[in-house]
Amino acid sequence: MADSLLNSAPVLFDAGEAREGGKGLVKPSSGDAAPQAVTTPAIRTTFERFELKYWLTEPLAQRVLSFVAPYVKRDPYSASYESQRNTTLYLDTRGFQFCENHELLSPDRTKLRIRVYGIPLGKLAFFEVKRKIKTITLKERFALPVPEVKNVLGQRPLTCAVPEDAKRTLSDFTFQMMLHRAVPKVYVACHREAYESLIPGEDVRLTVDRELVYQAAHSVDFAVNERAWVDIHEGDDTRPSFGYRRCMLELKFDGSPPRWMVELVRHFNLQREAYSKYTTAALQLRGRI
């Protein structure tokens, strides 16, 4: 399915291509902010989409948010500063092969990660198998109570029931983990301001990530040290713009981008960036940058 999407979907890269009306690419998802009110012991969702990233100064981010205000609304799960925090545990091989695949621009890349939302940490951990084929992002996601993290990573029996529709993704996660002998490597955290389309049913999202930080992971428990966070470098230019750290804008949509998104990129002359928070954090941790 991914190859057919590459041949048929319209893509938005940067301001130059927006001026030409866009040239191809994109497909769906939601779930950027956490549904903390979920009462089921496990949930599963599957996404296919394209995610376009742009570095912004904070003043420019505010102008962008003013521009899109008529078209989007705040994600209800990111209404407060505390709820905007997401903390993600990334797994990798002992030799950081997932990170190396990204550095080598492999056309087919995999990530295994576990995300928890909020300050303090919420009650649910969202397990994700994320695969990127060229520019299409494929993601399978399910949730378990946070105490189950150590059971999954330690390959021990779970203490809660798993709904049928989540079992396949759980099996895929554990299979990939064992196949690659992946272990916890890095925690990455940020504050994510998330917006969704005002049009019911339109799978369009815009997020702004700020305060990107990381720390090494040393156990199978989802346990972070709030005093150990280190700033993640911002792309190739590690210097803050005008004394302020930059933020990351992401545009996410299914099918063709809405017209306002094309106009946004063109109006502010936005240039698309190839950037991975995990890869940058892993390289920084290893002393490579």
Summed up:
The protein is α+β, with helices and mostly antiparallel strands and 289 residues long. It is 25% helix and 31% strand.
Q: From the structure provided, what is the oligomeric state, counting identical versus distinct chains? A: single chain
Q: Helicity range of the residues?
A: 25-40%
SS element count, helices: 9
Question: For the residues shown, what is the average pLDDT?
Answer: 83
Estimated share of beta-strand residues: 25-35%
**Structural category:** alpha+beta
Radius of gyration: 18 Å
Order of helices and strands: HHEHEHEHEEEHHEEEEHH
Largest sheet: 8 strands, antiparallel, barrel
Shape: globular
Strand order of the largest sheet: 1-6-5-4-3-7-8-10
Number of strands: 10
Report the uncertain regions.
1-11, 20-31, 34-44
Distance between the termini: 36 Å
Descriptive key words:
alpha+beta; eight-stranded antiparallel β-barrel; disordered N terminus
Set out the fold topology.
Blueprint: H1 2-8, H2 15-19, E1 44-56, H3 58-68, E2 72-74, H4 81-84, E3 85-92, H5 97-103, E4 108-117, E5 124-133, E6 136-145, H6 149-153, H7 164-179, E7 183-197, E8 204-216, E9 230-231, E10 247-253, H8 259-267, H9 277-285
Antiparallel strand pairs: 1-6, 1-10, 2-7, 3-4, 3-7, 4-5, 5-6, 7-8, 8-9, 8-10
Helix pairs in contact: 5-9
What this model shows, in words?
This protein is α+β, with helices and mostly antiparallel strands and 289 residues long. 25% of the residues lie in helices and 31% in strands. It contains 9 helices and 10 strands. It has helices spanning 2-8, 15-19, 58-68, 81-84, 97-103, 149-153, 164-179, 259-267, 277-285; strands spanning 44-56, 72-74, 85-92, 108-117, 124-133, 136-145, 183-197, 204-216, 230-231, 247-253. An 8-stranded antiparallel barrel has the order 1-6-5-4-3-7-8-10, surrounded by 5 helices. Helix 5 packs across helix 9. The longest helix is centred in the middle third of the chain and has 16 residues, at 164-179. The radius of gyration is 18 Å and the shape is globular. The two termini are 36 Å apart. Residues 1-11, 20-31 and 34-44 have low confidence and may be disordered.
